[in-house]
Amino acid sequence: MPRRRAADRWLYRPAWRPVDWAEGPYLDGTLLILSPTVPTDAAKLAFANKARRVVWGTQGIDALSSLTPHASDGGPLFVLLTLPPDPQTGIGETIATLAKQLAPHKNARLGFVSTGAAPGLRPLKQPAALLLGPACRIIEQEYGLPCRWVDCAEADLAAVAPLLGPLFDTPRHDRWAVHDHRLWRRTLVQQALPILPAVFGPGTYLVLGGTGGIGAALAAEILSDPGTSVVLVSRSGHVPDRLRGAAARVTAISLDVTQPLTTEAAVDRLRPMLPALQGIVHAVGIGAGAVLETRPPGGVQVAYTAKQRAAEIAETLAVRLRPAFLVYCSSMATEFGGVGQFDYAASNALLDGYAFRSEPAECRRLSLGWDIWREDGMAANGALTDARHQAHRAVGLTATEGGWLFRQALALPGPHLLISTVAPEEADYFYAPRRASVIKAEPVTASFATAADPSPAACLRASFERLLGLTSLPADVALADLGADSLTLLDALADLESQCGIRLALSKIGPDATLTDVIALALPPPAEPTRWTGVVRVDPWRSGRDGRHYVLIHPVGGDVQAYRALAQALPRSAALSVIADPRLTEATLPPLPLAARAAQYRAALSAPANRVYLIGWSFGAWVAAAMAAEAEAKGVPV
User: Fold this and answer.
1) Which of the chain's termini has less CB crowding within 10 Å, N or C?
2) How far apart, in whole angstroms, are the C-alpha atoms of residue 98 and residue 216?
C-alpha cells in the first residue's frame, strides 16, 4: 500500500532525460500504419523490412474498418497511428474508436506518433496531442492493450521507422521524444520547495469555478493575506461557507461557462469588477466519464468545452489586464489515467497546453496537476465498493494543505507542476482497474435476489449521500455545487446499474443537474414485459454430454465476448450457452427491473437434464442470483 510522504516531497515537475536506444526489432506480425497523408517512397522503403507484413492506411472510418481482415489470422498486430500536422480535440474520438476496435485482438499493440508535442524539449505546436498521455494509460488500464507514444521534431514518417523499439518493445508507460537525433524519455522529478512561499499582494483575484471545492480552498488562501479580495465565478453565484467570514471581500458572480457564450461578452461583464487584477485561478470542471466500451461519442469535447471557454476568458483577461499569474487547476489523472476517466483526463491534458503560452510575458502561467483532495470534491467511498479509492482519499490533500501547496508552487519556476502525496512510482496502485466498483465484494446470495428491487430514486439518493458524505441530500441543489465531480457521478451510475439494472450514460447528466434531475433520467417508462416475450436468446457455444449446462449471463455492456477466455477453462464435457442483452439488437425494448429481466432470462432456458449452472460477472452476477432465487422457489435445481 503506498504511504503518504512528508509534505516537502509532494511537488514534482516533468523532465526529459536522454536514453540509449537501438532500432526497433523485426516485428513478427502485421504492421498497420495509419497516416494522414499518402506515404512517400522513402517512408515505404524505411518500413519495408520492419515487419512480416506492412499495410498502409489512412485515418478515419475506412482505415478502422480495414483492421478486420488484417487481424483475422490471430497473429500479432502492430498499429501505428501518426497524427495530422494540426490535430484537433476530435482526435480523441479517433483514438477511443481505434482502441475499441483493437481490444478483441489478443496480440495487438498500439503506438502513436505526434509532431511538436513535447513541451520542455521544444515549443508546443500540437496542444491537442497532449491528450495522448492519459489516453495511452487508460487504454491499457481498461483493455489491457499495450499503448505507447513518441513525439518527433518534424513530420517525417520515414524517421519513425527506427522508433519501433520504444513504441512496441518496452514494458514501461513512458512518453518518448526524438530531439537532436537522440531519444528522450519523459519522467517526473522531485521539486524542492522554494526558500519563501508566494505572498498575495493587495488587489483583486479572479477565481473561475470559485464555488467548487478546490476553487473555494484557493480563494480562502488568497484571502488570508491582507488587502486581498476575490471575485468568484460559478453557475450558482453563491458564496461558499468557508468564505463567509471574509464575505465583505468576496464578490460572487453567476456565469455558466457550460452554456454557449462569447468570450467578449463574458470579459465585458467581468472586467468592471476586476480593479487592480493580481491573479487568475482557473478551477472550472464538469463531471464527465465512462469506460471506453460504453462511453458516448464526443465525450472529450463535452468535458473540455467548459474548461476551454473558461480558459479563453482567462487568457483574454490576462492579455488586457496583465495580472501577475494565471493558474490552471489540472489533475494527476493526466499522468496516471484511471478507469472510466478518458474524457476527464484528456480534457485536463488539453488544459495543460494553455500553461505553455507566453503572452503577455509578465503574466506567469502555471498548470497544477492536483492529487486527490480528501475533504473536497468527493467524500470517501465505502470500503467494500471501492477499496482503492478509499485508500487514495486516506492519503489525499486537505484544504489547508492545498492552499499551502498553492503558495509554494507560485514561488517556483516552470509552467507545469504536479502534486502527489505518495511516490509517483507507487501511485499507479490508485489508478489500476477498480473491479470492485461495479459489484460489491460480499457474496451475492439467493436471499438477496428475492428481496424487493431497490427503486432508482432510493438507490441514487443512498449512493450520492454515501459518496458526498451527507446525511440528507437536498434534492434540488446542483450536485456539482455539493462537490460531485466526474468520479462521483461515475460511481453513482455504477451503483444504479448494478443494483437496479438501469444503465444511464453520464453524458445525459447536465453540469447543473440535481438529484431530482438524475432520478427523472433514471426512471424507466412503464415496463412492457410482453414486448420482451420471445426476444431473449440462449445461444449455444458448445454441446455437452454429461448432463451439465453452464450458462454465462452478460456483464455490464451487454456483450458476452469477454467470456471467451472463461469458456475455454470450463469443462468441455458440459454444455455451454450464453445470454447477451437483447437490447443490443432490439434497441427499442423498454428497460426492465432486475427481477423482471431475470424472469425473462430464466423462461428462455429449456429444462436441463440435471442441473444448470448460472455464471455472471458484474451486472450478470445480479441477474444470475435473481434467476437462481426464482428457479429454486419453483423447485428447479440450479
Assistant:
1) N
2) 39
As a three-state string, the secondary structure of 328-370 is EEEECHHHHCCCCCHHHHHHHHHHHHHHHCCCCCCCEEEEEEE
pLDDT score of 486: 63
Q: Distance of alpha carbon 590 from its chain centroid, rounded?
A: 29
Q: Residue 132's CB: how many other CB atoms inside 10 A? A: 28
Q: Are 283 and 262 in contact (CB under 8 A)?
A: no
pTM over 0.85: no
Contact 359, 398 (CB under 8 A): no
Cβ count within 10 A of residue 49: 10
Closest CA to 595 of 450, 419, 482: 450
Given this model, what pLDDT does residue 25 score? 67
Phi, psi angles (nearest 5°) of residue 240: -60, 150
Per DSSP (E only), the strands in 11-153 are 11-19, 27-35, 51-58, 77-82, 108-115, 147-152
CB-based burial label for 559 (10 Å; 0-12, 13-18, 19+)? middle
Closest CA to 333 of 291, 279, 372: 372
In contact, 530 and 521? CB cutoff 8 Å: no
Of the candidates 56, 68, 11, 9, which has an alpha carbon nearest to the alpha carbon of residue 31? 56
pLDDT at 250: 97
**Rounded mean pLDDT for each run of 10 residues along the chain, 638 residues in total:** 93 92 76 86 89 78 53 73 82 86 83 92 91 93 89 84 78 81 91 95 96 93 97 91 94 85 90 95 79 73 81 94 96 91 89 86 93 66 53 91 97 95 91 47 28 68 83 83 74 77 71 84 61 81 83 81 78 87 76 82 72 84 86 75
- Say how far apart CA 280 and CA 542 lie, in whole Å: 64
